[in-house]
Structure formats: structure tokens, C-alpha cells
Amino acid sequence: MFDLVITNGTAVLPGGAAVVDIAVSGHAIVAIGGAGTLVPVGATRVVDASGQFVIPGGIDPHVHCALFLPGPGGKMIGSEQPNIVSKASLFGGTTTMCDFVFWKPGTTLTEAVKTRQELFETKCYSDYTLHIAVESPMGPEILAEIPGLVKAGYPTIKMFTTDITPSRMAHLTHYGEIWEVLKILSAEGGLALIHAEDNDLVMHMYEKLIAEDKVGFEHLAEAHTVMSEELSFNRVIGLAKNVPGAAMYMVHTSARTGVDAVTRARKEGFPIYAETLHQYVLFNAEDYKRPNGQIYHTYPSLKYPEDQKALWAGMESGNIQCVATDEVCCPLEIKLIGNRIDDTTGGNSGVEPRVSLMYTEMVTKRGFSIEHFVDLVSTNAAKIMGLYPRKGVLAVGSDADIVLLDPKLAHKIDGAALHAVDYSPWDGWDVSVWPSMTVLRGKIMVEGGQFNGDLSDGAFIPRKIPEEIRRGPSV
Ligand SMILES: [Zn+2]
Description:
The protein has about 475 residues and is an alpha/beta fold. It is about 30% helix and about 25% strand. Zinc ion (ZN) binds near residues 62, 64 and 326.
């Protein structure tokens, strides 16, 4: 007797899509069999998924809850908390979010992790993990904390090669300290996450654009340039190649030059992975000129049609492995407060439509296989971030994180009807599927538009980066 059997759906399994029965008991998938074969065993609940796709729960490797943003009157306020973001994520078919601990000098990494955990524990509906973002100066005491945190399930350290804007609080890690962190991660089994931009060029362009009175946000792609992505990706790759055993994951790749740098390094066998955002593949710098054009922005910046072409080609060839959101949820009123190149709020409420939009844009419109789509929204992130095979796969023994994508729920996105905030950059976009059900570790969290989640449902998932991910480009 099972708790749940999902029968007759087209399930995306490691060996390919097939019509099967999937049985769940407790938190895990306990059996997978031919269509109709597990129903007779008996189950508390049988769900007929005929005509639907059954996929592993989406994994968003790059989310920010409760991030500080410019609010009314120049006051800093927080973006939406884990309860809001995780609820929207489950409605959209994402069951695990990877958020960030931002460490600042004056505290320890361990204290920063503890503070961030308190924000999530019993306050998040979905499962979650935490990357740790550091900045210079760290000094030897902070560096000395990293090995213990890697062992405790926090094996990913994020570093910025830029302060992003002249008005923002510092983020930058100097190359010397990036080098030190890479050596530690190499020895301890970690993975470096890099936000790469050439700080000199970015700050030069801010000065120049401000002097020329080109301060409107429609100039953001001139501040955060294609050339900056070229120089910074290649510089940090060059640094990492000098650290035997170093492995890197490039967050929010936005330009053709970034894709080229990653592709070249992978060809040489260097263990490097790349993420892009659905924002970058679906919008470009022309969109800044549309009404409320800030809603299309996220840092570094939207780029140009030829960059989008390269990002799509990178996903198709496997040189880009993940599509993330870089989620920062805030109401439209807050998103529109900044309107300059140096104060426009980044991020968006993309976590809910991500999976269905990507199915539509990849499988329906561009002929990607459904297996490749699942890799890009779930499986690859699970493998690279050290969640696999617990997450990111429909297999016996894996967590029962299961999403049913229903073509009968095809519709136009209505931003106001989504669950995080009151707008969406994808308002009016077609989706050819939508989740009819989201299951998190065996619990039906969303069914037919009804939310059954409880704030005690979300769990922290400790991670360990597999050796093959760190040895060479294995995904
Ligand atoms: Zn981010």
C-alpha cells in the first residue's frame, strides 16, 4: 500500500520520457513501474496524470529572498520573504530554491549563516539551500571558517569581481582573495560561484555615462557591457586554471562573450558551469525602452539580440547548464522607484512562471527535447550544486518532489494573478503548460490552484559537490 500513485503520465526519467506509474511512500519515491502496474498494489491517493508530463520538481539555483532594495524616500527596505517567494515557487513547479547568505565584515561566516537560517526555518514552504557570498576584506579568520562550512553542507562560495554600481554597498572580492578562496574550495571539495564583471570598465562607464548625462536606466547595457563580460570571465577563468582542482559556476551569464569564454574553457576540460536567466534569454536592451522598462532589468544588464542568440545556442549545445531567476521579489511600485543606471532594482518575481515559460520557449517553440528542458530547469542544478540524486530526478529513493505539467492549463500569463507580487515581466506571454500539481517530499503542496502548504514543510537541504563535477565539465 502506497501513500500516492501517479499513474499514466509521461514521466521524464533518467533514461528518457515514458508513460509509467510512480509510487510514493512517506517522503520518497519507492517504485516506478509500467503504466497501470502500481495502481493495483493500492494507495491512499491515486492521481491520473493522463495527457500530462511528470517531471522532477524544479530547482532554482539562484534566488534572493529578503534582499535590501531602495524603497520610498531613499530608505532601504527588504524584498519579499521566504514565505511569499517559496509559495510562488511551488505554484510554478519549483520545489527547491538556492538562496544566499551575504556575509559582511564585522561578523563571522558562521554567525551570518545562523542569521540567514533563522530567516528560513519554519518560514519557508519549499525546500531550500544556501550559498555563502563573501567579499573583501576577509582575512585569515574568515577564510579559516570555509572548510567547516563546506563539510556542514554549504559547499558553494559566491564572489563578485565588481561592486556592480558606484552607489551600492561594496560586494567586490579582490582577485588575491578569490585566489585564496579557490585554493581552499579546491582542497575541501567546494565550488566557487562567480558574478564576473570587469570592475574597472563598469565604474569607468558609470563615470562616463553620468558625465554625458546618460543616467536613465535605458543605458544600463552601456554600463554593464558585453566587453566587461569577456574580460572578467576570461580573467577569473585564467586565475582558476592556476589552482589545481578548482571548479567554478558562472552566475547569470548574459552575453555572447561569456558563453564563448565558458565554452572554450570546457573544451579544454576545465570544470566550469554556466547559468543564464530566463530574463536574459527572453528580453534584451530594447525592452528598457518599453513602458515601465525597469521591470525587465536585472544586473548585470539585458544585452542584445546576438547575445540572446548565443545564450540559446549555449543552452542547446550544453555549454549553459542552468536557467535560474536571480529572484528578487518586490511590488511594482518598489520596482519602479529606481530609474537611473545606478539605482534601478535588479531581480524580479520570475520564480513562478520559470518552469512553464521555459517549457514553452524550449520545447514548444524551439524543439528542445523534454529531457533537455528538465535538465535545464532541474536536473543539472541538482548535479552541479550537490543535491543529486536526492533532488532533480524521478528515481526510486529520491525525494518525492514531483510536478505535473498539464497542457490543458495553457494560458496567457496574468502578472496580477501570480502569487508573489502584483506584476510580471511576462504579463501576456503564452505558456503551453502549467502545473496542475506540485508534490514536495510526498506532500501535495499545490493541486488545481489550491495551496496546501504549511510553513513547517520546507527543509534545509545540506549539499556535497560530487567529485566528477569538480574533476571536469561532467554536466
Ligand atoms: Zn543574484
